[in-house]
Design brief:
The chain is 45% helix and 14% strand. The protein has 2 domains: 168 residues, Rossmann fold (3-Layer(aba) Sandwich); 76 residues, GMP Synthetase, Chain A, domain 3 (2-Layer Sandwich), CATH 3.30.300. Strands 3-2-1-4 form a 4-stranded parallel sheet, sandwiched between helices. It is α/β, with parallel strands linked by helices. β5 and β6 form a beta hairpin. It is built from 11 helices and 7 strands.
Length: 263
């Protein structure tokens, strides 16, 4: 058994030891892998809980729901209200805390009917080097991080996901739409919808890793530098389509996509 397989064995043993678990599922690489492992060892005693709010693009939500159905998972959709929380909308650097705190609070409420159940989320080893306010929310609600406990890194999770036939194995990184606003810039719901529409244009055109950064009437596109030529070749069509969402100016960030960027 190689080191990656040993880590997965440790993960499966930990999940099985819980007896029943509720996984904060988003449809991303990490939570999808965690969900699949939980389902393998616990079956219907593993519940996947996904949040539905304006912070989540409709396409992302539907894709996650469809995958859960295809894999036969026990899925629960909860309505979260972080977008009604003024501290979340203020976007003062702790946005992620308020988002995750809302999700974990809702999970605790709906899962109280199931008795003794463990809450889990998809934090991984890579996250330890980042400032992640959501981690504090998880600690406040006693949410466990099985992937982190097994010492799993993103690159390993992608390999293991590929072996399981999970379509997320090569999925690009994703974060809630609130992350598209510079820290200190208040999040407005209509602007969040505007960002979602602009990003759907890039997605429909086949871009793999992208972000729309919102600066009032200016849209700053972040994509992988490897796709700069593609964008230049179709820039007129892309610019016109994005302007129809309400932006006056459309720019390309020459530094390319930067994970965790909020400026």
């Amino acid at each position: 058994m190689n080191p990656i397989e040993e880590k997965e064995r440790m993960l499966l043993e930990e999940l099985e030891s819980y007896g029943s678990i509720a996984v904060a599922y988003s449809g991303g690489v990490d939570s999808t892998y965690l969900a699949d492992c939980a389902h393998e060892v616990l079956g219907k005693n593993a519940m996947m809980v996904i949040a539905d709010s304006p912070s989540i693009p409709r396409e992302e939500l539907q894709a996650a729901v469809d995958m859960a159905a295809e894999r036969g998972w026990n899925l629960r959709i909860v309505q979260t209200s972080e977008h009604l929380n003024d501290q979340y909308l203020a976007n003062q650097g702790d946005r992620c805390f308020h988002c995750k705190n809302e999700l974990f609070t809702k999970m605790e409420t709906i899962l109280s009917e199931f008795g003794d159940i463990v809450l889990a989320h998809g934090a991984i080893e890579d996250d330890k080097g980042d400032v992640r306010p959501g981690t504090q929310a998880a600690a406040n609600h006693c949410v466990v991080a099985p992937l982190q406990n097994a010492g799993l890194y993103k690159k390993e999770i992608r390999i293991l996901s590929e072996r399981r036939g999970l379509p997320t194995a090569r999925k690009a990184s994703f974060a809630c739409l609130g992350s598209r606003f510079p820290t200190g810039t208040r999040i407005e719901l209509d602007a969040m919808t505007q960002v979602e529409k602009a990003e759907s244009i890039l997605r429909a055109r086949g871009y793999t890793q992208y972000r729309i950064r919102h600066h009032d009437d200016l849209c700053r596109i972040e994509i992988d530098p490897a796709e700069f030529d593609k964008l230049m070749n179709e820039r007129h069509e892309v610019v016109e389509a994005i302007k129809r969402t309400g932006y006056k100016f459309v720019t390309l960030d020459l530094t390319g996509y930067s994970m965790g960027s909020s400026a």
